[in-house]
Amino acid sequence: MKLIRSNTLLKMMRLESVIPMLAIPLIFFYREEIVYLQSFLLSSLSAFLFTFALSLLPLRERNGSQTVVLSWIFGIIICALPFVFSGEASILPAIFESVSGLTTTGLSTLNVEKLPKTFLFYRALLQYIGGLGFVMTMLLFQKPREGAVLYSEEGHSFRLMPNIAKSTRVIALIYLLFLYIGTVLYMIFGMNALDAVVHAMCALSTGGFSNRMDSIGAYWSLPIEIVTILLMTIGTTNFALLLLLLKGKIRAFIHSTEFRTFIFLVVIGVTLFIFSTVHSGWSFLSSLRHGLFNVVSALSTSGFSTVPINSLPESSIFILIIMMLIGGGMGSTAGGIKLERIYLIAKATVREIILRIKGERNIYTIKIDDENGVVHAEESDIKEAFFYGQCFIILFLLGSYLLSITENVPLLSASFEFASALATTGLSASVIGPNTSSWGLIITALGMFIGRLEIFVIVKAIMGRKEI
What is the Cα Rg of the chain in Å? Predict the structure, then answer.
């Protein structure tokens, strides 16, 4: 097991210390919010002093998973400080907001329509950075020797270029390009500049933070909904596949397994949603409009909505739970079990049934079309997909049960909320809010954290070696 130098973790922590200061430029556009300047400065200063103190101590080397997990924990705490120092939130809700932002979830306990504009931007910034990840962000500015190990541990399973440093720069440029396009389109269709930037950042990071309590539904604009659907789809797509699209290799993009699986699930999900809502008295066009948007939002784990979740029939809520648990593309900003794993599980299950009906027992591989063309998933890949899916479902069931008890809410509502947390989605059935108990916030925050870094990384961090 490769160990990571202690100064690599310190470098990551120092870069994370800068994050609160990135919101400061917005204060100069809203001079009445100058009072919040000290909150952001004090947060970064506290982080710098802490990392300086750590640098004076003899620190142990850690494995890659431990380094990634520790850097995320530090980043969450530091990014929560501006909320606390400004008085916008107490410690636990501030940490919850930071976890929700950095994990690109979007659940919130705050009244966003009363939140200062600087903090609205700051929350979106957390999701944008969280979508890239701390390791990815660090590799944009530094090239640690152990970069390849950390890169894969944070969930980036591909390289767009021959080396990781170039890959991270390409990903960042893709991210910025679509951020610019999304912001311009939002402004064309009626959003003000702040709302446009915030929603573009959060849609691309599949985060779901909004400046409105009613999310995208507050604008009641079909063009804005279409732009959001496109940005959510881009955010949930593997970065390597996006590069194919930008290179004009449209055929290879369309034929990729992940994209075809995504489209197939959207069609199935929207069809079931329409059937459910029309049966409950909705018009077909209304069902189609809300179904397409909210199914894409759930499957991409973005978390924007056009209608209050509690206004939907229970059967529609169940459909959205399934979509959230499935999740988006591997190597994207999305959460969930992930499309590639779901494809492998479904394909292997069908093949196993057919073989058993025939009375045969053969070793087989499954073809996957990805950015490298046709590859074959071996038996070990299929087993990993099944095992991860089982662990994910067990955590979902456990978290739903605990949340139902702590918040005294129906199991369906608790299941929806915890599925949203574990899949880092952000859609809410109003279980999470200002009146949520401390235990409810802790359970949900743990779900978001595990969902973002993935189960295996957390397990390896806990069980890994710590010796020098």
Answer: 22
